[in-house]
Amino acid sequence: MTPNNSSQSPQSASSKKVDHRGSLSSYQIYVLIILSIIGAPLLNFPRFVAAEAGADGVWLSVISGLLVTGFVYMVSKLCQRFTGQTFVQFIPEIFETKRMKWIGKGIASLIIICFALYWMNQISFQVRLFSEATNTTLLPKTPIEVTILTLLLASTFASYSRPAVIGMLNEFLFPIILLPFLLQLYVVFKKGEWVHLFPLLQSDWRGLGKGILSNGLGFSGFEVLFLVMGYSQKVEHSAKVSAKAILTTTVLLSSTIIAQYLVFGVDALSKNLWSALDFYKEVRPELLVIERIEAFVLGIWVVIAFIAITNLQFVLVRTICEAFRVKEEQTKYVAWALLPFFYGGAMVSENISDFFTKFQEYSYIGFVFSIVVPIVLFLLAIIRRKKIPSKKKDQKGEENHHATSS
Amino acid sequence: MRHLPKIIILTLIFPLLAGCWDRREIEDRLYVSAIAIDSTEDDDIAEISVQIPIPNQVVGGGGGGQAEGGKGPSGPFELLSGVGKTYSEAMHQIVVSSNDPLFFGNMQVIMISEEQAKKGIERFMDAIKRTSEVRRQLYPIVVKGKAKDALNVKVPSEEIPVNYIRGMLRSGTRNGIFADITLGQLLIDMGLPGCQFPIMNYMEPTEGGYKWDGIAVFKGEKMVGAIQGREDVAGVLQVRTNQKGHVVIVPRKDGMIAFHPYSSKRKIKVNPDGSVVINIGVTGLIQEKTSTDDLSKTEVLQDVSDQVSTIYQKQMKDLVNHSQKELKADVFNLGEYVRAYQPKFYKSINWQEDYPNIPITTKYHVTIHRYGISSD
To answer: Which residue range or ranges hold the Spore germination protein N-terminal domain (chain B) (predicted)?
Structure first.
């Protein structure tokens, strides 16, 4: 356990709130961002890119990754201006005026509600997506309600843990989730064909824009840093850490997309609903003990889906708790109270076509929102010179230092 | 008592654990090892047969003793058949006549009769690729005659004939002789817009076994012919799947030298005018020599390499002519390269129709690495 979990600042002591500032190390934040992005959608994401961006999806995935890296670096700089604060705390400060503080609170509430709804959608969709994949490929007779509920029960149980616990969980699982990415090199070596990547540069400007945006959707989930930056031990490193996390995610996402393009070709890929699993079925491993690596990979995907959903639930629960000043010991009630909404959201779509259509629509809306809002916040923070005064900052830094060393 | 609520919740979760619905005892399943697809007199109706091994009739399977083999309750496997307009309809007939649910996860071979292959295979492939149970590593093959009969061949060395075919296909592809076409590869080929001519291994049931007859060539979903000569198949596979090629006998002044390839690498270049240049590098060793040539001399090795290249080149030229003039089918999958490297040219033509007019040049570069443990 991180030593300062139970440390309380003078402010929080008055409100009987546990202060989680300084709970997460830079590495934990790095891992948490990556694992919040790489979730169940990656099971289907290369197919989506192939269908939306065509052959150019391969290199556009790298471009999108670099653009998102730059953007996240900017978001981190915004968070750095408000050391030790989560977005729930600093958004009102950006908007408020001396005379009318309610304006800040009003606009902040609106933004936070939008983010909360977006995360709720993401959680519901991810749960449904993963359940659809397991029911189609592994458990055809198991009712989808059961797979959805089992996953949600497990993730909800984990989601109301303290930030330090979530950080350690992510840290522990990170090496495991890298295994499928290493195995895909083997598949590419055995079955990949360079010719499948070509012809490149066939899209017009509109197509390129669509390709970049569709690839950008793969990075949905980076918004967790709005909250977790507030728990960072070393805020001064946060911009570099988050940029490194997005660069690592770019490598993982792009390598997955390129690998599947190399094996299937863009046309076969765009028609394969669960390409990530069929991809591993293409080879018969000669060195591994297991005969069917897709079963092994699906096992790891359970972990990937679980941790991504848990992270999103954690961020959502903490956001709600901070917004409504919920006491630490009541966090679990918030988490369990949200479960029926996730379940309901996951069960909304009647069939898989309807599900994918809704998933895409909401993901596009949410992604554009989570790009536009931080830019506005960043510009306003600079124009209005909003930041935590350096004295206050130093004081908080000192508190963190004391908390960590204790 | 503090943990009681947690214990209650966990106990409640247990019945919900996913997987219980899909739990099947191993003896409550019928493991399909192969399926055969045959045509009937009615073009719209196909016959589908499944081969199901009976574990207690197989030696070592608990039944005891050597079974008679073949169809029927006393044999080591059972053949069930159904007919229908679609794969699902025929399969439904099989399902209702079997005592346990069928499991396709261990299926090794899909046999398609030549007659049905000529009528088209897409509708069956569509049904098969939608079934997640089916392995993409199984072998789809075309068989001469009735595919159902091919499942019923008595093989002395194997009780289940499909195990014999699987072993044969596996070692043949490892040795680079047979086409390394699995179901996954076939589905990829059928999905590539530039690859309009999929291929499959072509086999014939014989007395007591099977004979490999080369490769069946498809135009879209329909079989249009076969390439049967050993050298011709090796040439196709060298270009198509980078397989190593075949042994070449080089005549010398007072004997001969046998060149055995062990790897080959091809590079395909497409010019803006659509002409294709195939460069194939073959590496191998001298396996046999009856001439008096001294192989320790570099110039002799070079001379032999040049002769091997010339022989390969001539065979390949004949093969290209055969594919363009007689088969009129792009057996080398060059369309995919033209589409990838010269997309404008590809869009300006109809590859299926215009393939016979495409200028194709092949160049071989043969390297002899070693000549065994003899010093000359």
So the answer is: 22-203
| Same domain assignment for residues B39 and B94 | yes
For A20-196+207-386, which CATH class?
Answer: mainly alpha
The verdict on a CB contact (< 8 Å) between B340 and A198 is yes
Q: Are A314 and A338 in contact (CB under 8 A)?
A: no
For strands B30-31 and B199-206, give the pairing: unpaired
Residue A199 touches chain B, beta carbons under 8 Å? yes
CB-based contact A199 B343, cutoff 8 Å: yes
Residues B136 and B236 in one domain: no
Distance from CA of A110 to the nearest CA of B (A): 36
Range of the domain at B92: 26-225
Give the chain B residue whose CA is nearest to the CA of A262.
B188
Q: Please tell me the distance from the alpha carbon of residue B66 to that of residue B156, in angstroms, as a whole number.
A: 12
What is the interface pTM, i.e. ipTM, of the complex? Answer: 0.85
For chain B, what is the radius of gyration of the CA atoms? 26
A195–B135 CB contact, under 8 Å: no
Half-sphere exposure of B255 (CA within 13 A, CB side): 9
Per residue of chain A (406 residues), give pLDDT as tens: 333 444 444 444 444 456 667 788 999 999 999 999 998 888 889 999 999 888 898 899 999 999 999 999 998 888 888 887 888 888 888 888 777 778 888 898 999 999 999 999 999 999 999 999 888 888 888 889 988 998 999 999 999 999 999 999 999 999 999 998 988 998 999 889 899 998 888 888 888 998 898 888 889 999 998 888 888 888 788 889 999 999 999 999 999 999 999 999 988 899 888 888 889 888 877 766 677 788 888 889 889 999 999 999 999 999 999 888 888 889 999 999 999 999 999 999 888 888 989 888 888 899 999 999 999 998 988 888 877 754 444 444 444 444 444 3
**Which of B22, B182, B191 comes nearest A141 by C-beta?**
B22
Specify if B196 maps to a domain.
yes
Q: Are residues B214 and B258 in the same domain?
A: no
Using omega within 30 degrees of 0 as the cis cutoff, is the peptide bond preceding A199 cis?
Answer: yes
Chain A residues with CB inside 8 Å of B136's CB?
A: 278, 281-282
C-alpha pair distances (Å), B140 with each of A34, A363, B184: 41, 40, 10
Rounded Cα gap, residues B54 and B60, in angstroms: 12
Per the domain annotation, does B366 fall within a domain? yes
Contacts of A146 in chain B (CB under 8 A): 16, 18, 21
Query: Does residue B102 belong to any structural domain of this protein?
Result: yes
Residue A140 and residue B191: Cβ atoms within 8 Å? no
Residue of B nearest to A202 (CA): B343
Q: Inter-chain contact A153–B132, Cβ cutoff 8 Å?
A: no
